[in-house]
């Protein structure tokens, strides 16, 4: 294997055309902050643009079995000098994404992602805490330029890494920082779902448009190849995505002005108290936006309508001045992310729910309502995963397992078959491994547990801690 230094613009051009890059070596900025882990397969231009914005003009790259550069057809691009040139067929059994990487390599990748996620979460929490505290102290004013600047960086990080915050343990013992954590979690989840929806929905529309053009014998764009696909439609532009993400970050800012005794009440709210809570979006949040001259419709719509009904007949929603069909797509995404985080977090009146149960419940609540909502829901489920990181499952042999990654899923057993905590750290199990013993498959007939229910059984290295 030979270490090369490839021009960042060359890599950006390759990925723009549908190619992939895996450096095989960690990429840092001048301040020794990790920008890209060695095993991450880059498929989005945003990840490379972030590296470029950090002043990195040349990216170190090792060409090896699981690292290198591939074009849009999966063919390896050879390197001559420090310049990508020529093509070489890949082995037929090789897939660039995590091919034969092994569980150990995957665990190292997860640890790297968690490290980066922890640093970004800490910075985000500092930002949202200051904004909310300033808003409360001043009666509505906060440094929105500082928040906008931070969320732009946060958006870049989330867009490049697909919600790495999901790997961080959620707080299940305290709800003291719920509002701060909730704002960050909703922003991270909703931004991930939004990007997936934007890519998938735009692809569907472009496929339809290309099919129609081909049927009519029209070529709206002059091309050398009549079979080439034209991607002329994009549901949301990049600048719009960043504004929407800012709206996700600030969606609950109106809750700052709701009295603490109501927000933290352990019992059922009275009708009058519930009316006070409802004001946080349609009145208090909008007032704060107006005081700060944040009249951007993406922000205003998200703040005001993130509790509005997103299908006909949905109950306990507010405000009701718009029908579900008139609720913006990104607001519907925010609503799903808001529900998911609220149900999986410790609250003053309930314990944190198991993420697997919550994903299932959200799906049942919103499936088969209308075609567009179904498309959003599909993006939500595929982003979160059926087995989100941090979920607790049963294996068929009776062991309980902690989900390290939803893909697979990759599971770490932490009890023996009798439910006793293991004294030594076992090897994780990739459930998707071909030919795996059926005893290590997920037991679909046993009810998954809430995080608090198994807290005492968890070994110290798996006990949830406050993310920041």
Describe this structure in words.
The protein has 468 residues and is an alpha+beta fold. The chain has 3 domains: 3-92, no CATH class; 113-384, Hypothetical protein af1432 (Orthogonal Bundle); 392-447, no CATH class. It has 12 helices and 12 strands. The strands form 5 sheets. Strands 9-10-11-12 form a 4-stranded antiparallel β-sheet, with no helix packed on it. Strand 3 (27-28) and strand 4 (34-36) form a beta hairpin. The radius of gyration is 24 Å and the shape is globular. The chain starts with a strand and ends in a 38-residue tail after the last strand.
The helicity comes to: 40-55%
Strand elements, count: 12
Distance between the termini: 39 Å
How would you write the strand order of the largest sheet? 9-10-11-12
> How many domains?
3
The helix-and-strand class reads: alpha+beta
CATH architecture of the largest domain: Orthogonal Bundle
- Structural shape: globular
Descriptive terms for the model:
single chain, 468 residues, alpha+beta, Hypothetical protein af1432, 3 domains, four-stranded antiparallel β-sheet, two-stranded antiparallel sheet, 12 helices, 12 strands, 43% helix, globular
